[in-house]
Amino acid sequence: MARDTSDTTPLTTRDELIAWFSAGEKPRERFAIGTEHEKIPFYTADRTPVPYEGERGIRALLENLGRETGWEPILDGGNIIGLAGHEGGGAISIEPGGQFELSGAPLADIHATAAELDEHLAATKRAADPLGIGFLDLGMSPKWTREATPQMPKSRYRIMRNYMPKVGKLGLDMMLRTATVQVNVDFASEADMVRKMRVSLALQPVATALFANSPFTDGRPNGFLSRRSEIWRDTDADRTGMLPFAFEDGFGYEAYVDWLLDVPMYFVKRGETYHDVAGASFRDLMAGRLAQLPGERATVSDWANHASTVFPEVRLKRFLEMRGADVGGPAMIAAQSAFWVGLLYDETALSAAWDLVRGWSAGEREAIRAAVPRLGLHTSIGGRCLGAVAAEALAIARTGLQARARRDGSGRDEAVYLQPLEAIVAAGRSHAEERLADYEGAWEKSVDPAFTACTF
Question: Which residue positions does the secretion signal occupy (predicted)?
């Protein structure tokens, strides 16, 4: 997230919290696609991580990229911590360990998403090359320890770093060493949100399997295909997971608000100051009885910022955010958007996708979520291999994209972007499994070749 929301409108009732979510509803003709991805920077000369400070650090990279793009700097305590595009455009932010993130603009189709990505990567290369910086396309840094990973000077991250060890064993690894790709999709109504939430939650482990790409930690195989996904299972149970209540009768904005109200806060921002209220209740802030800030009351900014500090496999804001995938190269980033748009933006495809998963119990959904980081497409669900489920989901997504009939200048529809995923299903091997085979073979049991082979 590049920039916290700034809206001092007071919030005094639960209905106002619910209305904040419903304000995200859009007519179908205005549905857009937002694609976000993180990439891990390193110095190409010696494969070491990139600190914030220094002539060739993250600050210098952001300054160079700002000159390349004309985007405005985002500051925190005098430090540049991101770039904001022109009105309606995207943004650049840095994650806690220096991961470089593009939060793409809301765009009409996957063709525009792919073009945005190409433009961003070209500009980033021009900014990074003079500094000797490259970027890994893996879902976790393969070599450096947590202690060796630099920490970025963002105020909210300092608060999170202090809180994470209190609620899970791997939260700092999540913050400092992982990289993901996310897709944001719109909904037309509460009922449309509910259908999309249920389908995408149930299928999120399928995405994890398809995009598994984090098999190395501390210079060796870590026993997982998606270590990034496994890390989330021991980060903070209060704010992560598969949201089983989303499948209960009557689920909607109200139920999500009640869950979010029960999630402890991280911070309250007033002006440029982040006040550490980690563990406090948003209900107390609304009532003006927050112990750390007596008399201070909740605003729209506080609610929007709080909504951005929960991390379930699918997150509701004023859109739905798909969160289950490791980052990969450019083709895989576009494929992530194509997969979810194909499933969710065509009514026939959405109904077919729901038919695919509606028979799964809460226990089965949790079981595949637990197994998929290690087993990937070889996970079992209801007597079926998850690879077979992935093949069926991809076929549904393809029909959904073909029905949208959004064509590029060469006449291709958006289904062309599914080809990398279809190749993975056909081979029965994720990119993580390919990397592991390289490690055992051509890489001679070293992760160093990843800094050449697995880069943008």
Answer: none
Indicate left, alpha or beta for 141 from its phi (over 0: left) and psi (-120 to 50: alpha): beta
CB distance 333 to 115 below 8 Å: no
Q: Tell the burial category of 361 from Cβ atoms under 10 Å away from its Cβ (0-12, 13-18, 19+).
A: exposed
Distance of CA 388 to CAs 109, 196, 383, 392, 427, Å?
Answer: 27, 21, 11, 6, 12
Cα angle 116-194-365, degrees, rounded to a multiple of 5:
90
| Residue 1's pLDDT band (cuts 50, 70, 90) | low
pLDDT digits (tens, 9 = 90+) for 30-76: 999 999 999 999 999 999 999 999 999 999 999 999 999 999 999 99
The answer to whether 257 touches 268, Cβ cutoff 8 Å, is no
Give CA–CA dist 344/426, Å, rounded: 23
Going by the DSSP 8-state scheme, the letter that residue 131 receives in this structure is G
Q: Is 52 exposed, middle or buried (0-12, 13-18, 19+ CB in 10 A)?
A: buried
Cα 432 to Cα 417: distance, rounded to the nearest angstrom: 20
Q: Which residues contact 281 (CB under 8 A, 6 or more apart)?
A: 261, 264, 265, 290
Instruction: Compute the distance between CA of residue 226 and CA of residue 232 in angstroms, rounded to an integer.
Output: 10
Contact criterion met (CB below 8 Å) for 297 and 157: no
284 dihedral zone (left: phi>0; alpha: psi -120 to 50; beta): alpha
Asked if residue 194 lies in contact with residue 202, where contact means CB atoms within 8 angstroms, the answer is no
What is the per-residue pLDDT across 204-218, written as a single tens digit (0 to 9) for each? Answer: 999 999 999 999 999
- Measured CA to CA, the distance from residue 114 to residue 102 in angstroms comes to 13
For the full predicted model, state whether its pTM sits above 0.70. yes
Q: How far lies 98's CA from each of 74, 79, 152, 154, 308, in Å?
A: 15, 14, 6, 11, 19
